[in-house]
Amino acid sequence: MIGARPSRWWILAIPFAIALMLAASGYRVGTFWFHNGQHRVLASADAGQWARASEDYTDVFGDTTRSYAVRLAGWGQESSTFVNSRGEEFALPDGMVARTVNLEFEAEPDQALTSCTISLIDDRGRRFDNGGSTSQVANESSACVPEETPGPSVAVLDTDVRGATPDDTQPRPTRWATSPQVVVPRNAEIVEVRVSFEHPDYVRLTPER
Question: Which one, out of 10, 40, 58, 178, has a CA that is 20 to 30 A from the CA of 193?
Answer without folding.
Answer: 58
